[in-house]
Design brief:
With about 650 residues, the chain is α+β, with helices and mostly antiparallel strands. It contains twelve helices and 26 strands.
Length: about 650
């Protein structure tokens, strides 16, 4: 049991670094032009001109990417097995080998989409070694195929059939013992800088950022138009996350011998600030190469820095940067950009083109990114007597699905070191049966005829409140009673109608909604220092000292507001929800408000609910009739932008 405690809320400014990462290859002209022409509008909005960004210290960086480093490596460095071998092209070539033995054959696809059935045939008289291009997968991957060759013999290497895609094929040959996985310490920065460039390190100067955008142009220097369709998406994200660090020089597990990779780095730092939220706004229209950096390597780097990626795709879902393909060329269930944004808790916006659409997409992406990184900003400490346990309570939310959590951590009262998680409220709430929860609400006018709250159950609601829950998403159409009852059950925690099931309500990451601007407040035993004399002398039995003694063993509770539409009270020792309250003033049958919006699969958080920090204090409650006068602990709830109730 904790002793008398007080709540201490963290009150630090919210800071964020936003980096704009633009594909500068040949087909990005419209997106580059739209972003550059609206740069002032975009930066002014994010710097506080738009209400979504008020009070946030934002600085900006700028970067560009082109083709993968392998596209610029040339004949001396682009092959995994044969880094110094002669590169052959064209339909027919003759060659000899110096020694009899087993050799590697590296096939290289310069376009990146496979060889469509073309074969490389190595002939010695009537004997043919066949290497079919389609078996070597896409994306500039190399075959690693083996052939046995004799010295003193002239062989013929022939691409057959040669058209229509034979011109894409390059190939090399080298002894098997030359196979190496090399991560050169130099990282080939001269090559890497043709694939990625930092245009502007992070700065608070909007003028510098706008000036640096002048370097953005289709087929700009030094990368040009890129040598094939896939680009350096993953490599660019990796370079930003690692401050220009070297790639791992390894192919993905399971693909060694079928792809080319080596360590590349630019050494160019974007300059992330310590302790800030980090967002990359990534623009593009093509899938990523995987042979230098895989999706996993990029994600590992991004997650290490807690970077949120907001992707803006000029194409439709599963196309462009969201192309559904694995790094071995096989089809994937998830698009590349979808994977990156989901894993980093970011967003993906498809089909963006034109100036107004570009501005809207950027501002929405950055807004959600800042919301995501700000989810850990609200902190409350429970500071008991030195001889008792001490906990730290921290709230979270996930902007990708607007779920939330409240977690209790052990806190060393001597060193201040944060220890392990004691409980997670989201897990506790997800494990509860909906009917077991105690959830209360009030009438539309804030009180019932008796002045008491009513259970948040269908038969206890007014007709107006029921109408809210029967209202169809995005309309004012009133649906059936059973649909309204299903919405109420959803709000109580029922998951049977989420996603593709039943009524297809919004899929939640947790029953507990996002805890955004509401800081958790802890309160247990009465701990104020009111005197028993003067205006605080309410007579025997009604002194504050009497109230403190009578509640000295009262269990601690953590209170916090959530945008699931409820004020929650959690037991400090277990994390179990004791009580939840649904404010009566937030019921609405309008298109833009009400509790029915929370079940909308396309919910974008345009509606705010219990978003303010509650206040708890002890007060002597007096009435005109002087009946039931006594000291009480009073909680005043606030809704922030949600309203008052």
């Amino acid at each position: 049991m904790l002793g008398p405690t007080r709540a201490v809320a963290a009150d630090s400014a919210c800071t964020a670094d936003v980096v704009f990462l633009m594909d500068n290859t040949g087909s990005m002209g419209s997106m580059i032009s739209s972003t550059r022409s609206n740069a002032t509008t975009i930066l002014n909005a994010i710097s506080g001109g738009d209400a979504r960004f008020e009070g946030i210290d934002v600085q900006y960086g700028l970067a560009t990417y082109w083709g993968d480093p392998l596209e610029y490596a040339g004949s001396s460095s682009s092959s995994y097995h044969c880094p110094t071998a002669t590169e052959y092209s064209g339909r027919t070539n003759r060659f000899t080998v110096a020694e009899t033995g087993t050799y590697w054959v590296d096939l290289i696809d310069t376009y990146g989409d496979g060889w469509h059935g073309n074969q490389l045939r190595i002939k010695r008289g009537s004997y043919t070694h066949k290497r079919t291009g389609s078996t070597f997968r896409w994306g500039r991957h190399k075959s690693g195929g083996k052939v046995d060759l004799n010295s003193g013999t002239t062989y013929t290497g022939r691409i057959n059939p040669y058209s229509p895609y034979g011109w894409e094929i390059r190939w090399r040959i080298c002894p098997v013992d030359a196979k190496k996985t090399v991560v050169p310490p130099s990282g080939y920065p001269a090559i890497a800088r043709k694939a990625f460039k930092v245009n502007q390190e992070i700065t608070d100067s909007k003028r510098k950022v706008i000036s640096a955008m002048g370097e953005w142009a289709t087929c700009s220097s030094p990368g040009g138009c890129g040598g094939d369709w896939p680009e350096a998406n993953y490599f660019a994200l990796h370079q930003l996350a690692t401050e220009g660090g070297i790639t791992d020089g390894k192919c993905e597990p399971g693909y060694s011998g079928t792809c080319t990779d080596r360590g590349y780095k630019t050494d160019d730092k974007i300059g992330w600030r310590d302790g800030t939220g980090k967002i990359i706004v990534w623009f593009g229209d093509a899938k990523s190469h995987c042979s230098t950096v895989s999706a996993k390597e990029a994600l590992d780097a991004l997650k290490t820095k807690n970077i949120v990626v907001a992707a803006i795709n000029t194409h439709s879902a599963h196309n462009g940067i969201d192309y559904r393909a694995n790094c071995d060329g096989s089809s994937a269930t998830s698009g590349q950009a979808t994977t990156i944004t989901v894993e980093t808790k970011g967003t993906l916006t498809n089909n963006v083109s034109g100036s107004s659409a570009t501005v809207d997409a950027i501002l929405e992406a950055v807004s959600k990114g800042i919301a995501q990184i700000g989810s850990a900003a609200a902190v409350s400490f429970s500071t008991g007597r030195l001889e008792t346990s001490t906990l730290l309570f921290q709230s979270y939310f996930d902007a990708s699905d607007w779920s939330g959590d409240l977690r209790a951590y052990q806190l060393d009262s001597t060193t201040g070191r944060v220890g392990s998680v004691v409980w997670k409220a989201a897990d506790k709430l997800d494990a509860r049966t909906p009917d077991s929860r105690v959830i209360l609400t009030m009438g539309k006018d804030g009180v019932t005829s008796t002045g008491a709250p009513v259970p948040f159950r269908w038969d206890s609601l007014t007709t107006v409140q029921q109408r809210d829950l029967r209202t169809q998403h995005g309309t004012t159409k009133v649906e059936t009673v059973s649909k309204g009852q299903a919405r109420l059950k959803y709000l109580r925690g029922d998951r049977s109608n989420e996603g593709t099931a039943g009524h297809k309500f919004r899929l939640r990451g947790s029953v507990l909604g996002d805890i955004w601007h509401s800081s958790p407040i802890y309160y247990a035993q009465p701990s104020l220092r009111y005197p028993d004399t003067g205006k605080f002398d309410y007579g025997a039995g009604n002194l504050y000292s009497d109230f403190r003694r009578g509640n000295a063993s009262r269990t601690g509770v953590v209170y916090v507001g959530s945008n699931d539409g409820m004020l929650h009270a959690f037991a400090v020792d277990t994390g179990e929800e004791i009580l939840a309250y649904v404010p009566g003033n937030l019921y609405s049958s309008s298109r833009a408000g009400g509790y029915h919006q929370l079940t909308d699969p396309n919910f974008e958080h345009t509606s705010i609910y219990v978003d303010g920090t509650p206040y708890v204090a002890d007060a002597f409650i007096r009435t005109r009739s002087k009946a039931s006068e006594s000291w009480r602990t009073v909680l005043i709830g606030t809704e922030g932008a949600g309203g008052r109730g």
